C-alpha cells in the first residue's frame, strides 16, 4: 500500500486551552495509539489534504522533530459540525507482525454482459474493511464484474484473497447489475410482440 508522510511536532500539554491554541494556529492535534504510550503531536492542517480528502487508502509515516518516525494508519477523525474543519485525528501504530483493520476502496474491473445488454451497474459498497498484516494491505479490492448478467449480484465471497480477510458477512453485496427502464421496456415490448405473433398463428 502507498504511504503518505506527515511532518509534525510532539506536544507536551494536551489540555483544552492548549488544544484550542493549536487549532487557532491552523494546526491539528493528533494522537498515535498502539505503542507502550500514546504519542501526542500536532501538524499543519494542510498536511492532511492528500490523506483525508481522497478516495484512496494510504498508510502514514509520521515524521517528528529529531528524526523520529512512526508507521501508522488513520483510525478516526473528527470534523467541526459546522465548517467541517479537522478537529482531531487518531492514528494507530503499525506492527509488522500484527494484523490491522482498515477500509480500502473497491475498484471495478471487467465488462459485464448484463451492462452491455442494457443493464445498469449499482455499486453498493465503495469501500471495504479488510484485515491484514501491514505488508499485505491492498491499495484497493478488485471487483471483476465480467461474470455478471442482468440481475446478477457480486458478493464479497467472490473477492477473497490469501493476503487479506474481508471483514463483512458473506451475504454482503458489493455491486449488482440492475435492469434499466429501457431494458425492461424493451423486454416488455418483445414479450408483447411474441404474444401477438403467436396469436396471429392460431388464426
From TrEMBL:
What is the superkingdom listed in this entry's lineage? Bacteria
Taking every annotated instance into account, which residue ranges of this chain make up the domain Large ribosomal subunit protein bL25 L25? 6-91
Recorded hits in InterPro entries, A to Z, give: Rbsml_bL25/Gln-tRNA_synth_N, Ribosomal_bL25/Gln-tRNA_synth, Ribosomal_bL25_b-dom, Ribosomal_bL25_C, Ribosomal_bL25_long, Ribosomal_L25_dom, Ribosomal_uL5_bac-type
Q: Name one GO cellular component term.
A: cytosolic large ribosomal subunit
Its keywords, alphabetically, are: Ribonucleoprotein, Ribosomal protein, RNA-binding, rRNA-binding
Q: Which Pfam families match?
A: Ribosomal_L25p (PF01386), Ribosomal_TL5_C (PF14693)
Keyword Signal (UniProt): no
Q: Which GO terms describe its biological process?
A: translation
Keyword hit for RNA-binding: yes
- A single Gene Ontology molecular function, please? 5S rRNA binding
* Boundaries of every Large ribosomal subunit protein bL25 beta domain copy: 99-180
The coiled-coil regions, if any, are none
| NCBIfam families referenced in this protein's UniProt entry, alphabetically | bL25_bact_ctc, PRK05618.2-2
Q: Which family does it belong to?
A: Belongs to the bacterial ribosomal protein bL25 family. CTC subfamily.
What interactions and quaternary structure are annotated?
Answer: Part of the 50S ribosomal subunit; part of the 5S rRNA/L5/L18/L25 subcomplex. Contacts the 5S rRNA. Binds to the 5S rRNA independently of L5 and L18.
Function comment? This is one of the proteins that binds to the 5S RNA in the ribosome where it forms part of the central protuberance.
Name of the molecule in the record: Large ribosomal subunit protein bL25
Query: Origin organism of this chain?
Result: Flavobacterium sediminis
Amino acid at each position: 500500500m502507498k504511504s503518505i508522510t506527515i511532518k509534525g511536532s510532539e506536544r507536551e500539554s494536551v489540555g483544552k486551552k492548549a488544544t484550542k491554541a493549536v487549532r487557532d494556529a491552523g494546526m491539528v492535534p493528533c494522537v498515535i495509539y498502539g505503542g507502550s504510550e500514546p504519542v501526542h503531536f500536532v501538524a499543519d492542517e494542510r498536511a492532511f489534504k492528500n490523506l483525508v480528502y481522497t478516495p484512496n487508502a494510504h498508510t502514514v509515516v509520521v515524521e517528528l522533530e529529531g528524526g523520529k518516525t512512526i508507521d501508522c494508519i488513520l483510525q478516526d477523525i473528527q470534523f467541526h459540525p459546522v465548517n467541517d474543519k479537522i478537529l482531531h485525528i487518531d492514528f494507530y501504530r503499525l506492527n509488522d507482525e500484527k494484523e490491522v483493520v482498515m477500509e480500502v476502496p473497491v475498484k471495478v474491473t471487467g465488462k459485464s454482459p448484463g451492462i452491455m445488454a442494457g443493464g445498469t451497474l449499482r455499486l453498493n459498497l465503495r469501500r471495504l474493511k479488510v484485515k491484514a498484516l501491514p505488508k499485505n494491505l491492498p491499495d484497493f479490492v478488485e471487483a471483476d464484474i465480467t461474470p455478471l448478467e442482468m440481475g446478477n449480484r457480486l458478493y464479497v465471497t467472490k473477492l477473497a484473497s490469501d493476503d487479506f480477510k474481508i471483514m463483512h458477512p458473506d451475504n454482503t453485496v458489493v455491486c449488482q447489475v440492475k435492469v434499466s427502464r429501457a431494458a425492461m421496456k424493451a423486454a416488455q415490448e418483445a414479450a408483447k410482440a411474441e404474444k401477438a405473433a403467436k396469436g396471429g398463428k392460431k388464426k
